[in-house]
């Protein structure tokens, strides 16, 4: 999760998020190179006292500053398109989870199991313990197995919401009357936090998302316990 004075992105908890962080750093280096070059040229032009009344054209430099940006855009577009296709691709999922947004809480349904569904509300501040995070912890956490392809189906019952987990690189709109689909795989155990990222009313800030990533055997035990 985000920590104090953190200037970069959160640590990736899924392969897609790790690729997004790499792509962010890749584009940042290109921007740094462009900024340095432009700044150097501006300083050089300001300090240069040379003048020429006979320089009317510079075909070589005009050709260069037309082709160079096109090449730079190719170096940005290729990994970007690759990532877009990877994020849209839904592999054979081992588990399907449906999230329904309400004002102002989330409902979850494990479609592969019978009678495994629950509502998830934010823990009020007066009921919080020292180990919980304000505005982020919920009374019922989503429990998911790690290293397993998971299909996420997101919808809403009233207004627009957005199911977002930054450390997974997942942000899917919850639209009434529509099922939006995404997929992810959690690469490490732990607790992941997110929030609704679409302004949905007065208590928009108070509908967090909490995922507990566990090994598969613990997930099976949890399912057995919840199904009793």
TrEMBL record:
The keyword Transmembrane helix applies. Belongs to the cytochrome c oxidase subunit 2 family. GO terms for molecular function: copper ion binding; cytochrome-c oxidase activity; oxidoreductase activity. The chain crosses the membrane at residues 27-46, 67-87. Its main location: mitochondrion. The keyword Ligase does not apply. One of its GO terms (biological process) is ATP synthesis coupled electron transport. Component of the cytochrome c oxidase, the last enzyme in the mitochondrial electron transport chain which drives oxidative phosphorylation. The respiratory chain contains 3 multisubunit complexes succinate dehydrogenase (complex II, CII), ubiquinol-cytochrome c oxidoreductase (cytochrome b-c1 complex, complex III, CIII) and cytochrome c oxidase (complex IV, CIV), that cooperate to transfer electrons derived from NADH and succinate to molecular oxygen, creating an electrochemical gradient over the inner membrane that drives transmembrane transport and the ATP synthase. It holds the Pfam family COX2. It is a multi-pass membrane protein. Its cofactor is Cu cation. This is Cytochrome c oxidase subunit 2. PROSITE patterns: COX2, COX2_CUA, COX2_TM. It is found in: Mitochondrion inner membrane. Binds a copper A center. Residues 1-91 form the Cytochrome oxidase subunit II transmembrane region profile domain. Component of the cytochrome c oxidase (complex IV, CIV), a multisubunit enzyme composed of a catalytic core of 3 subunits and several supernumerary subunits. The complex exists as a monomer or a dimer and forms supercomplexes (SCs) in the inner mitochondrial membrane with ubiquinol-cytochrome c oxidoreductase (cytochrome b-c1 complex, complex III, CIII).
């Amino acid at each position: 999760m985000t920590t104090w004075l953190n200037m970069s992105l959160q640590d990736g908890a899924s392969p897609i998020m790790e690729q997004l962080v790499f792509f962010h750093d890749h584009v940042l280096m290109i921007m740094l190179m462009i900024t340095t070059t432009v700044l150097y040229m501006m300083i050089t032009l300001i300090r240069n006292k040379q003048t020429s009344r006979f320089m009317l054209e510079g075909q070589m430099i005009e050709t260069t500053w037309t082709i160079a940006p096109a090449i730079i855009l190719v170096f940005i577009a290729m990994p970007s398109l690759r990532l877009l296709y990877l994020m849209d691709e839904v592999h054979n999922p081992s588990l399907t989870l449906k999230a329904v947004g309400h004002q102002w809480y989330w409902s979850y349904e494990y479609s592969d199991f019978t009678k495994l569904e629950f509502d998830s509300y934010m823990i009020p501040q007066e009921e919080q313990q020292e180990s919980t995070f304000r505005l982020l912890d919920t009374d019922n956490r989503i429990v998911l197995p790690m290293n397993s392809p998971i299909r996420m189906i997101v919808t809403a019952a009233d207004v627009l919401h957005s199911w977002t987990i930054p450390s997974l690189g997942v942000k899917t709109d919850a639209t009434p009357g529509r099922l939006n689909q995404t997929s992810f795989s959690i690469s490490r155990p732990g607790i992941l936090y997110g929030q609704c990222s679409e302004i949905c009313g007065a208590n928009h800030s108070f509908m967090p998302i909490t995922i507990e990533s566990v090994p598969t055997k613990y997930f099976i035990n949890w399912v057995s316990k919840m199904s009793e």
